[in-house]
Write a structure and sequence with these properties.
The protein has 231 residues and is of the alpha/beta class. Helices cover 29% and strands 20% of the residues. Strands 1-10-9-6-2-3-5 form a 7-stranded parallel sheet, with helices on one face. A hairpin with an 8-residue loop joins strand 7 and strand 8. The longest helix is centred in the N-terminal third of the chain and has 23 residues.
Length: 231
């Protein structure tokens, strides 16, 4: 296992977190395109990345050299409000190549394999969020997918009413960098555990070597009050 470095920045609110997230993405994109000629980026669902993408759409990036994959997606029909793609699709910067997870395929096993083959060997940047139960992507407490090691993409059991397709830990571990955007007081109990790499929660098991956590003040209250984060 490689050394994992987790850094954290705390900002006043969700808008500031979204702006900082956009700055990180723009910098990573410019660096990757300068070195490798393209930028490979995977994004999770949620409202914070929507705000980030609204900023990114106005940013000076050669979007024709950018590819975007979904980190996870609910298995639901096209256009369903439960689908991350329903909100993400219209916000993706014009010119970027978007790779949606094929969750409407009748053969999900084949769909998983097809999506996995579309992934680069190592994503340049993966955006992750965290739920109030410590889940990230669709790696949720108690799901057998937490133990998948030989595949980069898998389908979960039902969680909060939907099965999901998700990147697995091996795909996340190979990412050159991970950007966590964490907003809201409901995450306060889990944030110290993420920062400590607490493997009892799914988020704490992400092993990418470079991880930046950008949180708002409400999410960071436990840390601000001196809660222990361990080593």
């Amino acid at each position: 296992m490689s050394l994992v470095v987790r850094e954290m920045e705390v900002l006043p609110d969700g808008d500031a977190v979204a702006r900082r997230g956009a700055d990180v993405v723009v910098q990573a994109a410019r660096e990757a395109i300068g070195v490798r000629g393209r930028f490979t980026f995977a994004v999770s669902g949620g409202r914070t990345p929507w705000a980030m993408f609204e900023i990114l759409a106005r940013s000076d990036v050669p979007w024709g050299s950018v590819e975007i994959w979904q980190v996870d997606e609910r298995i639901a029909p096209d256009g369903d409000p439960d689908r991350n793609l329903t909100s993400l699709g219209p916000l993706a910067p014009r010119g970027a190549a978007l790779h949606p997870m094929p969750v409407t395929d009748p053969d999900l096993d084949a769909a998983v394999e097809r999506f996995a083959t579309s992934l680069p060997g190592a994503l340049d940047l993966v955006h992750l969020g965290m739920g109030d139960d410590g889940h990230t992507a669709s790696l949720v407490p108690g799901d057998p997918v937490l133990d998948v090691r030989g595949r980069d993409v898998a389908v979960t059991s039902e969680y909060r009413g939907r099965r999901r397709m998700t990147l697995t830990y091996p795909a996340l571990a190979r990412a050159r960098s991970v950007l966590w955007l964490i907003v809201g007081a409901d995450k306060a109990g889990m944030l110290p555990r993420l920062l400590a790499g607490d493997r009892s929660i799914p988020a704490g098991r992400v092993e990418a070597s470079r991880q930046l956590i950008v949180a708002d003040d409400p999410a960071a209250t436990a840390i601000a009050s001196g809660a222990s984060t361990g080593d």
